[in-house]
Automatic annotation (TrEMBL):
Transmembrane segments: none annotated. GO terms for molecular function: alcohol-forming long-chain fatty acyl-CoA reductase activity; alcohol-forming very long-chain fatty acyl-CoA reductase activity. It is an enzyme of class 1 (oxidoreductase). InterPro entries: FAR (IPR026055), FAR_NAD-bd (IPR013120), NAD(P)-bd_dom_sf (IPR036291). It catalyses: a long-chain fatty acyl-CoA + 2 NADPH + 2 H(+) = a long-chain primary fatty alcohol + 2 NADP(+) + CoA. The keyword Lipid biosynthesis applies. The keyword Endoplasmic reticulum does not apply. One of its GO terms (biological process) is long-chain fatty-acyl-CoA metabolic process. It comes from the Eukaryota. This is Fatty acyl-CoA reductase. Belongs to the fatty acyl-CoA reductase family. It comes from Spodoptera frugiperda (Fall armyworm). Keywords: Lipid biosynthesis, Lipid metabolism, NADP, Oxidoreductase.
């Protein structure tokens, strides 16, 4: 199986606020081949100047890029045993390999918000205490990826070839608010 790891925020764009984002493929904000050609032929200064008009409703290039990548994978992997896993905000491990384990490449998200003040790099953080945040431990995400790969292989072997999307979040069963996180 091929498991493409995306993000639960790949379609967190302002035109979908207060709507349910389903576990389905959505239309890419731009044709992936067009975007690739642009990045290969347009100079960096020009790309930087047109980025706001390219990403339109997306909050940043990260979620925009993940949306385009999902379309790319869907198109390029036709006929392969494919699934997409969309984790929310990945934080330190709950159990495996040990409680609190954190890959240092993951200090730019919610874990970094906790780590920053601890090492004196961050002195304040503005957030509404009542807003829910979708935190999910890295070991839960890893286990979901393995389970998705297994289920995809089993499903495709049974003749069900349509790619499936899995969201990995804790927001509805175990909601956390910013006020509880700090």
């Amino acid at each position: 199986s091929y498991v493409h790891v995306s993000t639960a925020y790949s379609y967190a764009c302002d035109n979908l606020i207060d709507t349910e984002v389903l576990e389905d493929f959505y239309k890419s904000p731009i044709d992936p081949d067009t975007l690739i050609k642009m990045t290969e032929t347009v100079d960096e200064t020009r790309l930087n100047s047109i980025t706001p008009s390219l990403i339109k409703n997306w909050p940043n290039t990260y979620s925009f890029g993940k949306a385009v990548a999902e379309e790319t994978v869907k198109n390029m992997c036709e006929g392969l045993p494919l699934c997409v896993v969309r984790p929310a905000i990945v934080i330190c491990a709950m159990k495996e390999p040990s409680p609190g384990w954190l890959d240092m490449s993951n200090v730019y998200g919610a874990s970094g918000i906790v780590l920053g003040p601890g090492i004196g790099l961050m002195h304040s953080f503005m957030a509404r205490d009542d807003v829910h945040i979708g935190l999910v431990p890295v070991d839960y995400v890893n286990n979901a990826i393995l389970a998705a790969a297994w289920e995809t292989a089993k499903r495709v072997a049974a003749g069900q070839t349509a790619p499936k999307i899995y969201s990995v979040t804790a927001s509805t069963r175990n909601p956390t608010r910013w006020g509880e996180f700090f």
